[in-house]
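Good morning C.,

I know you're traveling, so I'll keep this short. The sequence:
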Amino acid sequence: MEERESLMGRIEALDAATGRLRLDASMEALMSLPLTVQQLRATAVVITGNGDTTAQRIAEVLNVSLATVSGIVDRLVAHGVVERVPDDRDRRARRLVATDRGREIIQSLMVEADGFRRAAVERLDIEDLRALVQGLEALMRVAFASGVTAPHAE
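The tokens, ready to paste straight into the viewer:
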């Protein structure tokens, strides 16, 4: 059992180191965006709202005033990240919808965060690459032991 505990400890340490690298990559991607953190958060609220987001909803989620949200939304519209659309149920109201550009910005954060991993994997020699695949497949077998089939790529 000592070897298992030692190996588990190494896995946890390596996972933490990988998480730090991923965080660094995320922060670099975040800093290169033309939006503030508050604007990104508002964009995320709009995207997860699937076309049913209002300024009121953003204010609730971000815990800010409607006046603050108004300024945030104005800047997001100016950046082409969000658009205001008429509400079919209430002509006086406006819904907020993410544009393709808005979705691309959020997606770019996720893609950039994992870019370091692909670059590192590409540098592995073939024996280490095989070992990595074997380990990940073993992890998937255990994770999906409940009957769900693991994805298989050829």
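Safe travels,
E.
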